[in-house]
Every structure is written in structure tokens, then in C-alpha cells.
Design a protein that fits this description.
alpha/beta; two-stranded antiparallel sheet; 12 helices; binds S-adenosylmethionine
Length: about 280
């Protein structure tokens, strides 16, 4: 059996042996707790042979736990300096493929061979939201996403209408998936320890959106407008978006929405009703 990488002394040894300097800019905080790594890998619910995409393997800690399930692991790492490390730490796992690249730039569907797959990652915090949005908006054949993010981001992803932290990220994540916060992770589980508490979120990707809309593009345009000026009433938001007064009245009447409400109180159903009223007006 291979050395368990998820131990403080092993991570220390690897960092020293390869003369690594962890890059804050690239969000490099490596996990050093076996139980945490095991829990994240478990949450991905992998089976032997199932394709899984890991974003940012670092020195290979979570990658090892994913590989131990027998899954077919593809791990995309941006930092060139980590490639020789990963070659060594994962040398006994034929079911791991390391790809050097930027997750924001690569063609994910092509990389994963146009097959359904799972995503499991301890995400670099400086681009958490762009990565999640890319995974969701490209309508990739993803079944489940298990990611570690900052606790605050996890809370925004699962926030309900009317709460202070409900926003465009909440709507997008809940439109495409059923998200659930699984557990929190304290800073001491990482090396170096980050300043914030982290949380693991599991998202089951929906086969169908929870609301049917005439035009998806317009739905997200409405969502974006509603949250761009949180303090304005929804009527005023539409006015700033350049919509004529009589058209605003028509949209509100048709969707049955009270224009004096703030956009941040709208449920997915209400956003859909507004979006459809707007689509009908334009047709
Ligand atoms: N998986 C490891 C662990 O849990 O210990 C490391 C996670 S660390 C929080 C984030 C990793 O993402 C780092 O290894 C970093 O180099 C990598 N990374 C940062 N930006 C990236 C990008 N745009 N594409 C791919 N990997 C990236």
C-alpha cells in the first residue's frame, strides 16, 4: 500500500524534499488531515471505473483518496512546479491522469472524453465562483459536484430568497443543481492554514431545471439585473435596464409581481414568471 499523503509529516516532507513554496496567488492550501480527505472522497460516491475530474490536485492528497476508490481520475493542475511532485506521489496509481492546464481555459468536455463524470475538488479560492459557473453553464454531462469552498461561498450557494446573502450565485447553483452543505473544515486541516473556515458542498446536477422558462438567456438577464442594484425596487431596476415604463407595467401585470419588491426576494419561480412575461412582450 502507498504512503498516505494526507498527514502533516508527509506533506512537510514533500514540501521540503521538492523545495516547494506554496503560492498564495494560486490558492495553494494543502489538506493534511486524513479524515477530511476521506470524507470528501466518500461524498463523491465513486465506483471503480467511474470518471472523476479533480481541479487543482496540489501534491496529490485528495487525488490519492479518489484513486483508492478505483475511479478513473483526471486531475488538472496549473502550477508547473507541482508536476514532478505529482509524478512521484501518484506513481503507483495507473488510474490517475494528470493534465497540465488552466481549468478556466481547457475544453472540459473534450478532456473528459464526452462521458458523464463527477467533479471532486478542493478549489483554489481565488476563482471558486468562475469555476463553478463554468461547470454549470457549459451544461457538461456532470452528475455530481463535490467541492470544498470558503464557508461564506457555500452559504451563498445554498441561500434562500430574502436572505442577505441570496444572490446571482444562489439562483444559478439552485437552477442547475440541488446543493447541500455537507460539513465544515477548520483552517488547521490545511498547510498553510487559510484565514477562513471552509465547507464541503455537494451538488447533484438536475436533469431538468426546476422552473421551465421560454428563454434561459433572458432568465439570467433578469437575475443579473435584480442583483446588480440590490437596494432598488424591482420597477426601478427594470427602468435602469432601459425598459420603457409601459413595458415595465406590462411585465409586472403579466407576471403578477409587485414592482415595489426588491429583486433579492424573488424565488426561482418568480424570476421565471418575470422572464417569461418579458419574453412574451418582445415576441
Ligand atoms: N487538492 C489539493 C489539496 O486538497 O491538498 C490542493 C488544493 S489547493 C486549495 C488548489 C490547487 O489548485 C493548487 O494546487 C493550485 O495550484 C491549483 N490551481 C490554482 N488555479 C488553478 C487553475 N486555474 N487551474 C487548475 N488548477 C489550479
Amino acid at each position: 500500500k502507498d504512503v498516505d499523503l494526507a498527514k502533516p509529516e508527509v506533506v512537510h516532507y514533500i514540501v521540503k524534499r521538492f523545495g516547494l513554496h506554496m503560492s498564495k496567488k494560486l490558492g495553494q492550501n494543502f489538506l493534511i488531515r486524513h479524515s477530511v480527505v476521506a470524507d470528501i472522497a466518500d461524498a463523491a460516491r465513486l465506483e471503480p471505473g467511474s470518471p472523476v475530474l479533480e481541479i487543482g490536485p496540489g501534491i496529490g492528497t485528495l487525488t490519492q483518496a479518489l484513486a483508492e476508490t478505483g475511479a478513473a481520475v483526471t486531475a488538472v493542475e496549473l502550477d508547473t512546479r507541482l508536476l514532478p511532485v505529482l509524478d512521484k506521489t501518484l506513481e503507483h496509481y495507473p488510474n490517475v491522469r494528470i493534465i497540465h492546464g488552466d481549468i478556466m481555459k481547457i475544453d472540459i468536455e473534450e478532456t473528459m472524453g464526452h462521458q458523464p463524470f463527477t467533479v471532486c475538488a478542493n478549489l483554489p479560492y481565488y476563482i471558486t465562483t468562475p469555476i463553478i459557473m463554468k461547470l454549470l453553464e457549459q451544461k457538461l454531462p456532470i452528475e455530481r459536484i463535490v467541492v470544498m469552498v470558503q464557508k461564506e461561498v457555500a452559504e451563498r450557494m445554498t441561500a434562500r430568497p430574502g436572505s442577505k446573502i441570496y444572490g446571482a450565485l444562489s439562483v444559478s447553483v439552485q437552477y442547475y443543481t440541488e446543493p447541500e452543505i455537507l460539513f465544515e473544515i477548520p483552517p488547521r486541516a490545511f498547510m498553510p492554514a487559510p484565514e477562513v473556515t471552509s465547507a464541503v458542498v455537494a451538488m447533484d446536477v438536475r436533469k431538468q431545471p426546476p422552473v421551465a422558462v421560454l428563454e434561459e438567456k433572458r432568465f439570467f438577464q433578469v437575475v443579473k439585473a435584480a442583483f446588480s442594484q440590490r437596494r432598488k425596487t424591482f420597477s426601478n431596476t427594470l427602468k435602469s435596464a432601459g425598459i420603457r415604463k409601459e413595458d415595465i407595467q406590462q411585465i409586472l401585470a403579466d407576471s403578477g409581481i409587485d414592482g415595489s419588491r426588491r429583486g433579492e426576494t424573488f424565488s426561482l419561480d418568480e424570476f421565471a414568471a418575470i422572464s417569461d412575461a418579458w419574453s412574451r412582450l418582445i415576441q
